[in-house]
Amino acid sequence: MDIVLIAGLWLDGSAWDDVLPELETLGHRGIPVTLPGQGDGATSATYDDQVAAVLAAVDGADGSPLVVGHSAACTLAWVAADQRPDAVTGVALIGGFPSTEGEAYADFFEPVDGVMPFPGWEKFEGPDSDDMSDELKESLLARMLPVPVGVTRGVVHWTSERRHGVPLTLICPEFSPAEAQEWIDAGDVPELSAATALELADIDSGHWPMFTQPAALAALIDEASGR
User: Fold this and answer.
1) What are phi and psi of 91, to 5 degrees?
2) What is the set of domains in the chain, with CATH numbers?
3) What local confidence, expressed as pLDDT, does residue 163 receive?
4) Are the beta carbons of 79 and 17 closer than 8 angstroms?
5) What is d(CA 12, CA 35) in angstroms, rounded to the nearest whole number?
6) How many CB atoms lie within 10 A of CB 106?
7) Taking the CB of the first residue and of the last residue of the chain, which one, N or C, has fewer CB atoms within 10 A?
8) Order of strands across the sheet with 198-202?
9) Is the predicted pLDDT of residue 43 greater than 90, yes or no?
10) Which residues are CB-contacts of 51 (< 8 A; sequence separation ≥ 6)?
């Protein structure tokens, strides 16, 4: 099966390099997406540009792909369910949740000169990064790409109620499935509260399992593809 892979903020398609061979071993073809403004040099990129890139990857895949989103890009993966409900096998979310209708996509940190740079590892101390070595953090820091404010401050809109029936897997890294279920039950994550085909999966990692647990992550993606 084709697997469309969308990395979160500050990362390009190479974030999946360690996961791709693991997926291939399991019989899948990974399609990593380099999002506009995150690796292509387009500093004027917008949220809508990133949406278009994801939909183009879905449309270009063989058959019905599974769409995988990481962190903030969980919203972009859920866009595929919203706008291509008949074209996708399902969606898997890693360490994040789809934005609520009318929210900004990812306006988390103050921009500098029109872009939102990576704020430094101190913002992600604790469960997010405890499984990462200093060497890995240093290596990733050199790869982090500032994200244009046209992306981060883009407003999210949902268009089709049919998205709620698309098979959805939430992979829980720095938080547990039990914690995620509490947030869902409390209505803190409206898009997941409304999902009718949701499963939760645990992974023993921090926020970036594609770097620290690529084989385990690929195995969970493979399970999601079988739903």
Assistant:
1) -135, 140
2) 2-225 (3.40.50.1820)
3) 97
4) no
5) 7
6) 23
7) C
8) 29-33, 2-6, 66-70, 90-94, 168-172, 198-202
9) no
10) 76, 79, 83
Q: Which residue has the tokens 């070595």?
A: 133
pLDDT in tens, 119-147: 999 999 999 999 999 999 999 999 999 99
CB 9 within 8 A of CB 143: no
Residue 12 · residue 42 · CB < 8 Å: no
Q: Which of 199, 152, 192, 170 is nearest to 68 (CA)?
A: 170
Distance CA 124, CA 17 (A): 23
CA dihedral over 206, 7, 83, 158, signed as positive or negative: positive
Tokens of 3: 């697997």
Strands 66-70 and 147-148: unpaired
DSSP 69-102: EEGGGHHHHHHHHHH-TTT-SEEEEES--PPPTT
Best CA proximity match to 155, nearest among 102, 115, 194: 102
